[in-house]
């Protein structure tokens, strides 16, 4: 059952755009019109099969997200989302990572996070009073922790949006025009977890939210 609030309806109206934006983290080659067609169920020639799996995984994850209430961060829901976005792409979708990995321009290998530590951190984040801060701080923590084998950015953005939408704040998406800014700020924070770098990253996220009228009136 779809949640009945302004943020949910905003998400539904923008769903194809949201799927396309989030898929950009995977460097898909499909255009926006091709992405729309795939979402609508069309079978296109000369489109990478991996791109189709990524797009359909995001579609299914967004639909699950708007059908459930998650005002707080739910570890089991996060695992479900990772399992959905990783379907047909990785063998161990939805499973916590157990080996060190390298990420892009990050200088050091990222160690696997202990499951107990992961849960403890989520509980601490759930103690943040304001849902907006709760959501975006979780997003940063989740991406930089890389808890899963694959799909960590997609999973983090979807899980953060579950909190934003359930609390009728709005919907968060990094469009192509702001993707470089986000990635630059994220890499800076990866390599130097200073308060300044964290604040710059959080500000980029905040300005990428399409806020509901209700939230803007309250704030």
CATH class: Mainly Alpha
Radius of gyration: 17 Å
Structural class by sheet pairing and helices: mainly alpha
Overall shape: it is: globular
How far from one another are the termini? 29 Å
Number of strands: 2
Strand content: under 5%
Q: H/E series, N to C?
A: HHHHHHHHEHHEH
Strand order of the largest sheet: 1-2
Count of the separate structural domains:
1
The name of the CATH architecture is Orthogonal Bundle
Can you tell me the residue ranges where pLDDT is under 50 for at least 5 consecutive residues? none
pLDDT averaged residue by residue: 94
The CATH homologous superfamily: Fido-like domain
CATH topology name, in short, is: Fic-like fold
Kindly describe this structure.
By secondary structure, the protein is mostly helical. It has one domain (6-218): Fic-like fold, CATH 1.10.3290. 58% of the residues lie in helices and 3% in strands. The protein contains eleven helices and two strands, in the order ααααααααβααβα. A two-stranded antiparallel ribbon has the order 1-2. It is globular and about 45 Å long. The two termini are 29 Å apart. 33% of the residues are buried. The model has no long low-confidence stretch (mean pLDDT 94).
């Amino acid at each position: 059952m779809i949640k009945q609030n302004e943020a949910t309806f905003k998400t539904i109206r923008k769903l194809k755009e949201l799927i396309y934006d989030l898929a950009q983290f995977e460097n898909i080659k499909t255009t926006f019109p091709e992405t729309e067609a795939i979402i609508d169920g069309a079978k296109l020639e000369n489109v990478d099969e991996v791109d189709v799996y990524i797009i359909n995984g995001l579609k299914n994850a967004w639909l699950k997200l708007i059908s459930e209430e998650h005002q707080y961060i739910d570890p089991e829901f996060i695992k479900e989302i990772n399992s959905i976005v990783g379907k047909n792409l990785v063998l161990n979708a939805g499973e916590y990572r157990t080996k060190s990995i390298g990420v892009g321009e990050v200088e050091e290998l990222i160690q696997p996070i202990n499951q107990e530590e992961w849960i403890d951190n989520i509980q601490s984040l759930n103690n943040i009073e304001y849902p907006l801060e709760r959501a975006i701080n979780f997003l940063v923590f989740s991406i930089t922790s890389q808890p899963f084998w694959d799909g960590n950015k997609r999973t983090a953005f979807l899980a953060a949006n579950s909190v934003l939408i359930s609390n009728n704040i709005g919907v968060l998406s990094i469009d192509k025009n702001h993707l470089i800014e986000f990635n630059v700020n994220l890499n800076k924070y990866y390599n130097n977890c200073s308060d300044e770098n964290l604040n710059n990253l959080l500000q980029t996220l905040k300005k990428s939210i399409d806020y509901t009228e209700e939230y803007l009136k309250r704030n």
